[in-house]
C-alpha cells in the first residue's frame, strides 16, 4: 500500500543510526555511523532508489567488493643491469679528477 513511500522515508534516516549490535533471524548486523561526503550521499540515495534497495545494502555490497578484491600479484620484470666497465679514474687522485672535469 504505502510500502515504497515508507522505505523512501526510512532511507533518508538510515545514515544517522546509532552504533549498536543486534541480531535478527540468526543474522548478525553491526550498525554504525559513517561520515560520507554530501555529493556521494546524494548519488547513493539516487542509486538506492533506482535499484529499489536500501543505502545500507549498496554500501555493504560496495565494501564487500572492495574487501574481497585481491589485486593480481604479477611479477615485475627485473631491473636492467648496466656494465660500464668499472671506474675509469681513481677518485682519490685529485689531479686525475681535475683532468677529467676539464675535458
Architecture overview:
There is one protein chain. β1 (20-24) and β2 form a beta hairpin. α2 packs across α3 (55-68). The protein starts with a helix and ends with a helix. The protein has helices at 3-13, 38-51, 55-68, 94-102; strands at residues 20-24, 27-31. It is mainly alpha-helical. It contains four helices and two strands; from the N terminus they run αββααα. Strands 1-2 form a two-stranded antiparallel ribbon. It has a domain at 7-66.
Taken from the alpha-carbon principal axes, the silhouette is rod-shaped
Say what oligomer this is: single chain
Q: What is the typical, i.e. mean, pLDDT?
A: 78
Largest sheet: 2 strands, antiparallel
Which radius of gyration do the C-alpha atoms yield?
Answer: 31 Å
Helix and strand element order: HEEHHH
Secondary structure category = mainly alpha
Distance between the termini: 92 Å
Strand content: 5-15%
Low-confidence segments, given as residue ranges, are 15-20
What's the count of strands? 2
**Which percent bin holds the helix content?**
40-55%
The number of distinct helices, counting runs of at least 4 residues, comes to: 4
Amino acid at each position: 500500500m504505502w510500502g515504497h513511500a515508507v522505505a523512501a522515508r526510512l532511507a533518508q534516516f538510515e545514515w544517522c543510526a546509532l552504533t549498536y549490535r543486534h541480531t535478527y533471524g540468526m543474522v548478525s548486523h553491526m550498525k554504525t555511523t559513517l561520515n560520507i561526503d554530501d555529493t556521494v550521499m546524494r548519488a547513493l540515495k539516487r542509486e538506492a532508489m533506482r535499484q529499489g534497495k536500501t543505502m545500507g545494502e549498496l554500501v555493504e555490497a560496495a565494501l564487500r567488493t572492495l574487501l574481497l578484491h585481491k589485486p593480481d600479484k604479477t611479477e615485475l620484470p627485473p631491473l636492467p643491469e648496466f656494465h660500464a666497465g668499472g671506474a675509469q679514474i681513481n677518485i682519490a687522485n685529485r689531479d686525475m679528477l681535475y683532468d677529467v672535469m676539464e675535458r
